[in-house]
C-alpha cells in the first residue's frame, strides 16, 4: 500500500475502498459474468473513518474494518485518485454487505 | 447453500432473500396466477444483518430471521449475483410480512 | 379464515385488511351510494403487526386489533393476493378510524 | 347524532368535524359573505382521536374536544360519508382555532 | 375588540394579527413608502395560542404576546374574516421581529 | 442608531444586519473589487434575537453579538426598511463568519 | 498569513480552506493529472469554527484543525475573497478526508 493511501484518513463514516478487478471468478467465488452490466461490485477496504457523530456527540464506529471484502452498490461513492490509481469513498451505510472469512 | 452465500453478511438492516419461483401454488398455499403481473412476491431469508443502528448507538435486531418465508414488495431490493444465481437484498422495513410456521 | 391468512404475520405497523363489498348499506349503517366514486372504504382487520419500532427500540402497539371494522383512505395500501382472494396491507397510521362496537 | 357517527372513533390525532352551513351570520357572530369564496370555514367537532403517539410511546391529547366550534383551513381534510351526510376528518394540528364559550 | 375576536383562540403556535394600515409613517417611525411594493408589513397581536407542543408533550410558549407590535413576512399567513374585518393567522416562528416599548 | 432600530427585537435566531457599503477596501482590509459580482458581503450586527428554541424548550444563544462585523452569504436574508434605510434579517446559522477584533 | 485571514472566524461547523494549486504532484504524493477534470481537490485548513451546536446546546468540535491537509469534494463550498485572494468555506461534514502527518 502506497504512502499516500497509508496516510489517507477518511472523515466520519466514510470508507476508502479499492474496487476488485472485473474478473470471471473472484477468489471467494463471486462470479461476475463479463457480458453483464454488473449491478453490484466488490472491493477491499483500505481505510475507515472514526465513525458518524451522533447528536449527543458520541461516535458510531463503522461496520467494516480495514481489509474487509465488501459488496458495493452500483451507483454512488466518490472517486479519489491517489498516486495515479483510482479509489472510492463510500459512506459506511451505503456498503451492502461484507464477506465473512472462510 | 453455497459457500459464498454462507459467507455473505448483509450490513445493518439488510436481508438477503432468495425469491420463490413463479409457480401456480406454493407449499404454503399462496397462489400466484400465471397470468397476473404478480404485485407481491414471496421469498426465503438466507442471511440477515445485525440490525439498524440508532442515534444512541444501540442495535435494533431485524424482524425476520434466516429461514423465514417472507412477502416482498413488488418494487425495491437490490439484485446480487452470487455464483451465477440471483439473490435480493431488502431492508428489513421493506419486507411486508412473514408466514408463521404451520 | 383460510390457512394462509391465519399464518400471515404483517411486519411492524402493517395491518392486513379485507375490504367490505360495495353494498348499499352496511350492517353498521354506513351508506355507500352506488353512483358515487366512493372516497372512503371500510374493511375488517384480519391480522396486525407487532407495531412500529421506535429509535429507542421499543414497540408502539398498533391502534387497531383483529376483527376491528375500520375506515380506509381512498388511496394507498398494498394489494396482497392470498389463495385467490385480494387483501390489503395498510400502515396503522394510514387507517382513518375504527367503529366502536354497538 | 346518528348511530354511526356515535360509533365513529377517529385514530390518532384525527378529528371528525361537521362543517357549518354557509349562512350570512352564525350564532357566534362570524360573518361569511355569500359572494366571497370563503377562505376559512367553521365547523363543530363530533369526535376526536386519542391523540398522536410520540416516539416515546406516550399520547399527546388533541387540542380540541367534542362540541368545540372550530375554524378550519380552506384546503385539506378528508371527506367521510356516514348515513348519507358528509363529514370531514382533520388532523388536530391543521385546525386553525377554536372559539371560547361566551 | 369585537366579541368574536375576543372569543377567538388560535391553536398551538398560531398568532392572530391585525395588519397595520398602509400609511406614510407609523407612530413608531416605521416608514413605508406608498410607491414600494412593501416587502415587510407590521401588525398588532390580538390573540396567541398556547404554544407548540413538543415530542415530550410540553408546551413552548409563543414569543409574542397580545398587544405586541410585530413585523410580518411579506408572504404567508392565513386570512381570517371575523365580523367583516380581515385578520391574519401567523405561526409564531414566521413572525420576524417585535418592537420593544419606547 | 435611530429609535426604531434600537426598539427592533428580532425573534428567535434572527439577526438584524446593516450591510457594508460596496467600497474598494474596508477598514479591516477586506477587498471587494468593483467589477466583481461580489459573491460575499460584509455587514455589521445591529440587533440579535434571544436564540433558537430547542425541542426541550431551552434557548441556544446566537453565535454573533451586536457590533460584530460579519460575512454574509450572497443570497438569503429578508430586507427590512426602517426609517427609509434598508437593513437585512439573517438567521444566525446563515451567517458565514465573523471577524475577530484586531 | 494575512491579517484578515488571521482575524477570520468561521461560524459553527464551517472551515476556511485554501485550495492547493493544480500541480503534477503534491509534496505528499497526491497526483492530479493535468488532463483530468480533477474530481477531487486538496487544500489546507486556515481556520475552523467552534463546531456545530446540537439540539441540547452542546458543541461538536470540527473533525479537522488548522494546518490539516484535506481532501475536498468537487462541488460545494462558498468562495470567499480576502485581500484579493480566493479561499473556500466548507462545512466540516463535507470534507472527505484528511492526510495523517508522515
UniProtKB/TrEMBL annotation, chains A, B, C, D, E, F, G:
<dbReference type="GO" id="GO:0005759">
    <property type="term" value="C:mitochondrial matrix"/>
</dbReference>
<keyword id="KW-0346">Stress response</keyword>
<dbReference type="InterPro" id="IPR018369">
    <property type="entry name" value="Chaprnonin_Cpn10_CS"/>
</dbReference>
<dbReference type="GO" id="GO:0051087">
    <property type="term" value="F:protein-folding chaperone binding"/>
</dbReference>
<dbReference type="GO" id="GO:0005524">
    <property type="term" value="F:ATP binding"/>
</dbReference>
<protein>
    <recommendedName>
        <fullName>10 kDa heat shock protein, mitochondrial</fullName>
    </recommendedName>
</protein>
<dbReference type="GO" id="GO:0046872">
    <property type="term" value="F:metal ion binding"/>
</dbReference>
<dbReference type="GO" id="GO:0051082">
    <property type="term" value="F:unfolded protein binding"/>
</dbReference>
<dbReference type="GO" id="GO:0044183">
    <property type="term" value="F:protein folding chaperone"/>
</dbReference>
<comment type="similarity">
    <text>Belongs to the GroES chaperonin family.</text>
</comment>
<keyword id="KW-0143">Chaperone</keyword>
<dbReference type="Pfam" id="PF00166">
    <property type="entry name" value="Cpn10"/>
</dbReference>
<dbReference type="InterPro" id="IPR037124">
    <property type="entry name" value="Chaperonin_GroES_sf"/>
</dbReference>
<dbReference type="InterPro" id="IPR020818">
    <property type="entry name" value="Chaperonin_GroES"/>
</dbReference>
<dbReference type="InterPro" id="IPR011032">
    <property type="entry name" value="GroES-like_sf"/>
</dbReference>
